[in-house]
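Re: the request from the purification team.
They wanted to know what the chain is likely to look like in 3D before they choose a buffer screen. I agreed to run a prediction and write the result into the notebook, where they can find it.
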Amino acid sequence: MDIKKILPELSLKEKAELIAGGDFWHTKAVERLNIPAVMMTDGPIGLRKQADKADHLGIGESIVSVCFPAGAALAASFDRDLLAKLGETLGDECQAEDISMLLGPAMNIKRSPLCGRNFEYFSEDPYLTGQLAAAYVKALEKKGVASCAKHFAVNNQEKFRMTSDSVVDERSLHEIYLAGFEMLVREAHPQGIMCSYNKINGVYASENQELLTDILRKQWGFEGFVVTDWGAVKDRVQGLLSGLDLEMPGPGNNAQKIVDAVTSGSLDEAVLDKAVCNVLKFVFASKSSKAENIVFDREKGHAISGKLATECAVLLKNNGNILPLNKKCKAAFIGEFAVNPRYQGGGSSHINAYKVTSAVMAATGIPYEYAEGFKTKESVTNQKLLAEAVELAKGSDVVVVFAGLTDVIESEGYDRKTLALPENQNALIEAVAEVNPKTVVVLHNGSPVAMPWKDKVAAILDMYLGGEDVGAAAIALLYGNANPCGKLAETFPLKLSDNPSFLNFPGENGHVEYREGVFVGYRYYDKKEMDVLFPFGYGLSYTAFEYNDLTLDKTHMTDTETLTVSCKIKNTGEYTGKEIVQVYIRNYGGNIIRPIRELRDFTKVELNPREEKTVEFTLNKRAFAYYEPRIMDWCVESGIYSVEIAASSRDIRLEFPVEVKSTAVIPTTFTRYNTIGQLMSVSAGQQVLEPLLRKVQEGMGNVLTTIGEMGAGNEMMQAMTFEMPLVSFVLFGILTEEQVDGIVKAVNK
């Protein structure tokens, strides 16, 4: 369909109506011009297609669909291929259900472990977020289904989420909160981006020109269309001027406001036409890519969901190699989640699951007895259930407690208040572990939890929210039919107050200051040298891996070159397993305050016992760069960096230094109030000041004679020289006013 030919045929009213939904889930149709209505639906991890009684909070009933693991679980896989498999599968299901756009992936950074929607999001790390999202989107859109990455941007809490103002500095905005979206746009070219409800630095996302036009389109080259989160429009005309294309849901009453604005001359019709073209481009692409006679095999989808869950689970503890369990040992399965697992979160991503497999259902041929232990709808300990569980634990070879967060604690719409599990679950784990030290805890949670019983149990297996086949995955992992290979995509702190956002989350009356800057997650904990419960990138296996032979293709480079890094990974254990190899770049000093290390690449490698493979990585400028607001671009400081090959952010196995020289030119206008050190940070300053530096130091030496006699002269003189404003040397009679002006003029040239 030729959009250029259609555009003149549309009336002003029709144009205004086309850039809002026709109803809750569909775009607007114009039958006389053969413009169809196409459907979009919630569900980064499954379809929440609603036939009627539509809503965006997961309240109304939706069609039966396969529920896959939540974003928090998927990120723990560190597996691009796994996310691509999910994207392909969802694409098939969307085609079968005539869905043109799936509203996902959800990409917001986990600033605080309390965010109620963290179960949907990938990670505290933007690189991991961007890489997984790109793999998902490429695969989904290859199937002819549009993606709509969300929520753009800086939407990191549920409290006041529709009106809050996220106040964040420019560097942190780009390095932490936008970097994942940037990677997605540049690498995967998604058709849709969903703007968030909140303000960013005082301007609502839906009318934020810097965000939607200057950054998204001009800097990153986004060619798709921007749709609102449902109900996010505040000022529709201003949004249109700022780069917002489609308002959802519809039809609403904003079309007439747009017509009036064009008629009055306050809105150029060309701006409206651009938004109309962006929406029609999506509509016609969707129509042309519609597959015929597709039938989605839900049974196959269910099996894929289970496979994904086994790849995402994280083994956090395994004392004495109690896992995998012997299939002949007498086991006690305790906890309501063994029968009714929590496998997904609440809210707009909630799926009407095809079928749910519990651990009890999957434990065929395994000798076990079950005790309820606690009720998920209660938090106070039920003494009768506790006593029954303890009695069963006493007579069992091993105890498996199925615990976790409940839907009441963790859901879209509100934030958590604490890291704690419900009181009755903690009491149960403590009591059972006291009578049977061979206690294994299986967790069902969408975000970090406190574990006061960690040192009292033998093993901890975190299934996260593992989708509808989570029970089968748990049994496979517990009994050795699968080997855990997930690693944490977020830090588990020892206590809530350790979190870098603790003092500023969720803000005051909707005003949220991101005072921790770039120090989010492991970037903060590592810089502060703080103990954590479990670090970013951590996860155990039933086998062991050895890292050797780190090789760099160069040890000196400019920031315009790439660096090829390789190393060997060997499985030294007795089980086939997969290791997630992580590449961090460590920064050794410089003038810019930066994290100790940052994740810059990763891969997952499968190895049989005694097998060894070589893995290779290619690092470019961005691996060493920070965002420099003065040039509004990424910049590398010249200096020494270290390439670290790691099993986690706290388990560095191999490292080697590399010197990187920057080619960036940062324009700076110096004044007489700049220090000697600042002036000498550029080559022109060095040339001008070096002949005068001796005179300056001699003059300062006279002033500091007394201090020198006390033994602090040399160090103090150097500090005073380099940190004092240039103009101050006039006061000491070392330089004249004319000399100061001449120095400034020469340096600025």
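For the purification team: The chain is about 30% helix and 20% strand.
Please add any questions underneath this entry.
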